[in-house]
Amino acid sequence: MSMVQITINDRQVSGECEPRTHLADFLREAENLTGTHLGCEHGVCGACTVLVDGVPTRSCITFAHACEGARVTTIEGLDEDEIAAELRTALSKEHGLQCGYCTPGMVVSARDIVLRMEAPSEHDIRVALSGNLCRCTGYVGIVRAVQSVIEARRARGIAAVPGGGRDRLGPAGSGHAGAVQENKRERAAPAEAAAATRAAQVSRDDNWRPQTTLEDSFTVSHPPEVVWDFFGRVEEVAACLPGASLQGAAEDGHVEGQIKVKVGPISAEFQGVADITRDETAKAGTIDGAGKDKRSNSATRGRIRYVVREGDRPGETLVELSIGYTLSGVLAQFSRSGLVQDVAGRLIAVFVQNLEARLNHEAGGGTKETAPESAALDAGSLMSSVVIGQIKQFFARLLGRR
């Protein structure tokens, strides 16, 4: 794994990836830019087309590290683009859309045609789009849409840009040798600089939004001030979470560690980092984290918000949780089932059990060194509950149709 730095949709991104990682996989899995579609993965169908330094490029056969220092624009980055907006309107008007799978790559390629070709014929447009395959439309509506946009822009006095604004020969993304050498020196920097880079990875995108959010709460039979104080001791909190371990002590609200999850045949070990903030007045905290499982090449990003309140009974504490996460890669298929919710629910239950045991130990005068061993997640029991739940849902649907 090594660091790569790319400007994606006008935002500087730094991330770790294997040298063999393709740009399309980096965009989809590391940056959650899933508008870049994967079809043939051989550079034939064009569904994965993005702009690299302004040039349409097959991201499924372009290595992410080959784009070191380059500017990459995906279909998401063309939301406010004038030509792309006109193409979307024209494609809708000319019925150039059906399943939509080819559309992101088709729009990127069509935009390049509108930008650099002054008055192309229908044949010219078809040749220029021959690298973008569509299984639905027959291309007639797509070609008409491109023609109409070009004619409308030329009628408004907007001329083509010779070469589409390209100012150098060579592969798309080339011309950044200086940046590559600089990054090589950065990789040889002290461990403190590398740790700072990893820390920045978690919080670099303030606009991140989770794909799934879970709301939960639990009650602890100890006063709020005791629970709040315990939550501030990150190492002890991690010890209560099954499968979690830290790599060293937390520093300035930043921590590195891993969490292992094994449920039946599913096994993952997410290595990651987290930034922790706490509001003493509101007794509320936020944990922003990101991690990756090397075995499955799956990645996750999450945000946990918690609030500590008075419980219904004296001496009790109510902890309200909001867990938002995004899961990408092979393991993302399980996020569409109830499995992730079941795992999260069981993890919380075991966490509360371990939390109670440690707080009881402290209340009895025990020390951290003599704290009770934390309970582990019962994966077999969890799988059984998932299967039973699915069977119940099946019969509920079956009986509901009768």
Automatic annotation (TrEMBL):
Keywords: 2Fe-2S, Iron, Iron-sulfur, Metal-binding, Oxidoreductase. The keyword Zinc does not apply. Residues 163-188 are annotated as: Disordered. It holds the Pfam family Fer2_2. Residues 2-78 form the 2Fe-2S ferredoxin-type domain. The keyword Transcription does not apply. CDD domains: fer2 (cd00207), SRPBCC_5 (cd07823). SUPFAM superfamilies: 2Fe-2S ferredoxin-like, Bet v1-like, CO dehydrogenase ISP C-domain like. It comes from the Bacteria. One of its GO terms (molecular function) is 2 iron, 2 sulfur cluster binding. PANTHER family: OXIDOREDUCTASE WITH IRON-SULFUR SUBUNIT (PTHR44379), XANTHINE DEHYDROGENASE IRON-SULFUR-BINDING SUBUNIT XDHC-RELATED (PTHR44379:SF8). This is 2Fe-2S iron-sulfur cluster binding domain-containing protein. It comes from Pseudohoeflea suaedae. The lineage of its organism: Bacteria, Pseudomonadati, Pseudomonadota, Alphaproteobacteria, Hyphomicrobiales.
